[in-house]
Amino acid sequence: MLSGTQQSAHPYSAQQNLISARLLEASNLITLYSVLGGGWR
Predict the structure, then answer these.
(1) Taking the CA atoms of the chain, what radius of gyration do you get in angstroms?
(2) Any residues with CB less than 8 A from the CB of 14 and at least 6 apart, and which?
(3) How far apart are the first and last CA of the chain?
(4) Can you say how many angstroms the Cα of residue 19 is from the centroid of all Cα atoms in its chain?
(5) What is the Cα 18 distance to its own chain's centre?
(6) What's the distance, CA 41 to chain centroid?
(7) Which residues, in sequence order, are CB contacts of 13 under 8 Å at separation 6+?
(8) How far is it, in rounded angstroms, from Cα 11 to Cα 40?
């Protein structure tokens, strides 16, 4: 965990982590959909 001083030194890190997590989640859902037989063709 980051201390309070480290968090204030990097105010955008939490937002960047959230964006990264959402992109990873979307990628995983697309992969899962494709594996289960879905597709756009």
Answers:
(1) 16
(2) 7
(3) 44
(4) 5
(5) 6
(6) 27
(7) 2, 7
(8) 39
- Per-residue pLDDT for 30 more than 60? yes
User: How far apart, in whole angstroms, are the C-alpha atoms of residue 4 and residue 38?
Assistant: 45
3-class secondary structure for 5-17? HHHHHCCCHHHHH
Tell me the residue type at 26: A
Is the pLDDT at 28 greater than 70, yes or no?
A: yes
Q: What count of residues does the chain have?
A: 41
* Residue 30 backbone dihedrals phi, psi, to 5 degrees: -65, -45
Model confidence, pTM: 0.56
Dihedral angle sign, alpha carbons of residues 21, 23, 27, 33: positive
Residue 12 tokens read as 């955008």
